[in-house]
Amino acid sequence: MKEEEGKMFKQLQQLDTAFRYVRGFTLLIIASCMGLSAWVVWSAQQTSRQLQDKIYILSNEKALEAVAETRQSNLPVEARDHVRSFHEAFFRLDPDEKVIQQTIAKALYLADESAKQQYDNLKEQGFYRQLIAGNISQHIAIDSVLVQTEIPPYYFRCYASQQIIRTSSVLYRKLITDGYLRLVRRSDHNPHGFLIERWRILENPDIRRSAR
Question: Model-level pTM?
Answer without folding.
Answer: 0.68
